[in-house]
Structure prediction request, 537 residues.
Amino acid sequence: MNVLKPHLQTTIWTLLRAGNSQREIERRTGISRHTIRDYAKRFAAQADPPQESNCPGVATGSEAGSPSQTAPPRPPALPQGATSAASLCEPHRTFVEAQLRLGRNAVAIYQELVDEHGFAGRYNSVKRFVARLRVHAPEQFDRLSFAPGEEMQVDYGEGAPTLVPGTNRYRKPRLFVATLRYSRRSYRRVVWVSSQQVWAELHEQAWRYFGGSCRYVVLDNLKEGVIKPDLYEPELNAVYAATLAHYEVVADPARVRDPNRKGTVENAIGHTQGTALKGKRFQTLEAQNEYLEHWETKWAAPRIHGAERRQVQAMFEEERAHLQPLPPLPMQYFRDEQRTVCDDGCIQVAHSSYAARPAAIGTKVLVRIFERRLEIRDLKTQALLRTHTKAERPGTVVLPNDERVFNPSRQTRQILAQAQAIGADAERLCQLLFSIEGRVGQRKLWGIVHLAERHPRQLVNAACAQALDDGVYSYRHVKLVTEQRVALALKRLEQMAPNADACDGLPTQSHALIRSPHEYGELFAKSAAANQGDLLA
Prediction:
């Protein structure tokens, strides 16, 4: 400690007794606060004030006997780190604490105090007061309580490195975790890739693992679950929404950039990665899933939860009875596609045609394709229009006779004009097919017309005449007969080819274009005589 002169010590003691803060004394005297603090401790330990003073008006030791100039009693010692004077912000403590909870800084609070509360202090006073409050006021979170079977939280994380099938490379798969909020019991699985159907299937597996479904599920705004995030009306993808409806569960997507809403599953993912999977490698996904199930059953479920001070498995047994019962049938997954209604009133799916009425010709409809059936829905309202059983063979037409369209369109006239160019029999067969099947038969008409692009028209027209004679009005029959006639014509050409090849192989001695050998001899003789004359010259 620096040793001050007696008059400076007396000055410090006098200012401390008057209630000035150490910072104020430093500003007035220029003495360091550390030195002032040390002398304050020293004065508190002494019974008397400093003995000598050159400052006028301050009692010294020789004058201590005079009753009029006896010094007043020394103020009690202050705790270490405390100031002797209250802050000017103390009357506004409630307002400052409320502003800090809103995340406002010291500058904004100071400006608010001056404008609305008539604060007369300086900004540094507010800054010091705010710094003390922030040290003793940690961040606060509202801890929510949930009933058994009420909520489940889900999210994706990263699993342990796993060998990619068919390679020597390791990659981290996606780790799916579903945690019941009441009991903290979790379901953990790793998958290589995720999709809308995979995301929904993992939910279904989790509910069947728990033995029932919860009332609602809290998820992140990932694309597998939420197509368009929104605070009031988030848009879920169709497969996920249908899965939740099948199990009578309501989705509650967390707000964007608000992971604390699903803090339970966030902690579960961190617990899994930091304890179960840390430093491990697996050869297959199945091996990692088996290890996760073993770890959950043996270690995670029997543990005592830190906040609840209860065993997780015991809380899960209590919660199991409150889960919703599972439906008898599992979810039937589907995919949605858009199709345009053709001029025959049908849509095409996997090379088969299905009636789409009452959808108008030329409009787009939503086709929901299941494993064994398909649904035709309105594109805007999602209203169900038709339901069909999926055709087992490509090319099948699922269309009642009373819904067939027989009035010719511009495309029909174009096909008949091309059939007329092939031949009379081809045109007659195409007109007969259209009168029997209507516009849905135009595909067969196109097939017959396109045969003329690969085979001679005479053979196609002859095949159509044979089809009319046989009474088989089918594109397949015309195609088969055409190919047979083409094969027979090629066979006949092959039989005629050897004689032509033999004649072409022998050299011909006489022809109109071949001159006589005497003419070639005379030409050579004249050319030789001319060359000899040039050499002599």
Observations:
- The mean pLDDT is 86.
- Residues 90-136 form one domain.
